[in-house]
């Protein structure tokens, strides 16, 4: 029996995680669930966004289903106490360096895409985002220049081992798909990216069957709306992956559709699973959130951490069928509530 930690967090986090939990329950599997406080909710209750008992639960669990963290009322807190530190802290503490963000156009959702249907139809890609390095985790600080001007800095840095292990995840993923890997960087300007490119080229020698292309991130952002169907697997750093995955989500209809898996190794034992979106304070508490990304994250959890491919596919098929039957939350142009969307997925579960 596996232990699944549920860290629902803030805003729409609890709303979408509730629907994912309903779907997991409906599978009738023999798993145990334990809830933990995280983010702004944990700060309010216990004075810290990632309290020791939540970290302990995360370490003890076989997998973590995460909602979202973020609370505008806490934007003024010192950085170490902000809700977002919880997800950054979990990623770092659990060594979750590989973030898989699949973006697939589900049949029937073409009209929800920000792109023309004929452009959007062919999208089936995975962004492999490095998750524990880059400018996110480098030295950062505030100070004053000699002239007395306020300044801030964040150090962008990778070492060769960090790049090589995420590159391997990209190649392994591509090997199992269409064998096309695009490595996205900014090597024309950044030294970090120049190292990234060199290391990706070295790892490529082990994967002659994969066609590797390097692309600058600005061009990648453009190609993602010009011809997104040309992408198969994209491997990139933490910051570029964050931005490109939000962009990819609108190409397939909504940020409420994109799940993710954060793994500590390619054949991940330990994993954290979360929608790519945040706490969406603008719609929180209104029953408007699309729970599909959270539900699809639960499917990824079963696949990657619990080796239950059959159950993962059951969930994914149910989401596709629910969409096919016309179920749509407002972000997809419909009027289903969060719960009604969960109901539609449950009704479609075979
Ligand atoms: N992993 C995380 O926990 C995570 C991820 C992103 C942002 N955040 C945090 O969330 C807070 C809000 O950030 P933001 O507004 O930039 O990003 P966001 O993803 O929360 O919301 C962006 C926009 O997308 C919409 N949206 C997001 N998820 C949706 C869903 N499931 N269904 C329908 N619409 C949805 C929102 O209503 C909003 O208009 C911030 O505090 C931010 O730091 C947390
Ligand atoms: C909340 C924030 C720290 C996080 C990130 O930037 O990684 C979010 O945007 C995400 O995509 O998971
Ligand atoms: Mg993001």
TrEMBL record:
Function per UniProt: Catalyzes the oxidation of 3-carboxy-2-hydroxy-4-methylpentanoate (3-isopropylmalate) to 3-carboxy-4-methyl-2-oxopentanoate. The product decarboxylates to 4-methyl-2 oxopentanoate.
Domain Isopropylmalate dehydrogenase-like, chain residue ranges per copy: 3-345
Name of this protein: 3-isopropylmalate dehydrogenase
Cofactor names: Mg(2+); Mn(2+)
Pfam families assigned: Iso_dh
Record-listed E.C. numbers: 1.1.1.85
Sites where the protein binds NAD(+): 278-290
Molecular function terms from GO: 3-isopropylmalate dehydrogenase activity; magnesium ion binding; NAD binding
SUPFAM superfamilies on file: Isocitrate/Isopropylmalate dehydrogenase-like
Entry keyword annotation includes DNA-binding: no
Coiled coil segments of this chain: none
Localisation per UniProt entry: Cytoplasm
Description of how the protein assembles with itself and partners: Homodimer.
Keyword terms, alphabetized: Amino-acid biosynthesis, Branched-chain amino acid biosynthesis, Cytoplasm, Leucine biosynthesis, Magnesium, Manganese, Metal-binding, NAD, Oxidoreductase
PROSITE patterns: IDH_IMDH
Record text on cofactor binding: Binds 1 Mg(2+) or Mn(2+) ion per subunit.
Recorded catalytic activity of this chain's protein: (2R,3S)-3-isopropylmalate + NAD(+) = 4-methyl-2-oxopentanoate + CO2 + NADH
